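Interim report, section 4.2 (structural modelling).
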Amino acid sequence: MGRNKYPEETVAKILDAALELFCVRGYEGTSIQDIVDRLDGMTKGAVYHHFKSKEEIFNAAFDRAMTPIVEHRRSMLDIGNMTGAQKLKRLYAPESVVPQIELWARMRPAADPVKSSRLLAMQYQGSFDESADGYLLPVIEEGIADGSIACECPREAAEAVSLLANLWLLPLFRPLEPKERMLARAQCLAQMAAAVGLDLGNEVLQTTAQIWDVWNRAGW
Amino acid sequence: MGRNKYPEETVAKILDAALELFCVRGYEGTSIQDIVDRLDGMTKGAVYHHFKSKEEIFNAAFDRAMTPIVEHRRSMLDIGNMTGAQKLKRLYAPESVVPQIELWARMRPAADPVKSSRLLAMQYQGSFDESADGYLLPVIEEGIADGSIACECPREAAEAVSLLANLWLLPLFRPLEPKERMLARAQCLAQMAAAVGLDLGNEVLQTTAQIWDVWNRAGW
DNA sequence: TAAATACATACTAACAGTATGTATTTGGGG
DNA sequence: CCCCAAATACATACTGTTAGTATGTATTTA
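Predicted structure of the assembly:
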């Protein structure tokens, strides 16, 4: 294959192939050659021209998949003047999550935590980042400041909720549970969050239900 | 090195070396040769005589480290005739966890989730097993049966508590937090658990404090 | 004493990564 | 607008390392 006038198309192709393979076969289970074989005609030289290592490809593919999801969710906080409590509910409302659900489809990993361990680790790390440096803790603190949230341990509550939402409620690395079980998890999470002063809102149940519908329709 | 009359000694040496290396350098970062180099005089042939793959070595090393910890905790439930609620509290009391804490020292992984991703995945998977097929859910159901526990979503509560205890309260894959932050997590977890009907007991705070002391003394 | 066991030695195939070559595009001076 | 040098986008060919295998040999067991 000759040189492409628009190299970002090549990069996109590489990352698309990489993401799917990393999800299905895991990080270890995917070789650079596996990725190259899906880029018909292209060779390893092209890949190593755009990326300097396998790890960099993985990180780039992961970021590329996550960025629009995170950005959309964060953008939900920028509209109007809401209290902290309202912003918190909005974060778990369908409008913040469901429109991006199809994108999650592209990074549906193998339902085997060990095979997906690297993705799991990214999500685990991301849960702390999301709560600490990201949007969750700031929103809670905003709510405390404006009097709409009463929470004695904002950091801990944010971390716990973030972890449970990312690694348990959305069972990315486990087989899809029956719908009523996923709803039970949402209910349970909401109750636990409420106990530490965080009202996630009733909409979290609808959000969960809609996510389940999309995933189930996609045949997971 | 000649043939050892007691091959289980050889196996133990291999697993000891493997566990430490896997923890410090991660699964990917550890080669079979690295392990062999720590078994002075022994060669790769010996290793592949006792184990058929790197993965099997990892699993064996992990099991070997975890078994006594899990067994001890489970044994705490066998004494006397306790109600489900009493058993639940006992699971998080110092006597169930602290005596085995030194053993955890041997499998202290790198405080980098990605490097430790395989261990993290095992712990993640283990959290579900522990709650579902293990001892936590049975104890809760026993408590419901004998009337000492009122919990509407026993499975969900068990999973959530198990996940938070294993991946958050005991921050194996993250740098050790200041003591007061770990205690805040324990307090927060207890509050959340209480909201879904699980009383982990006040002793969980002492347990956490003692774990912190041991880990901190060990220089983490 | 024959079979099984516990290793050592020597090798292979696959893999991540590198060095280098070559065509194509870009961008600036005339 | 054209020419040419530099940069870019790849391809080709190679290297070192690694997990794993095949096979040989001494020791123990039964």
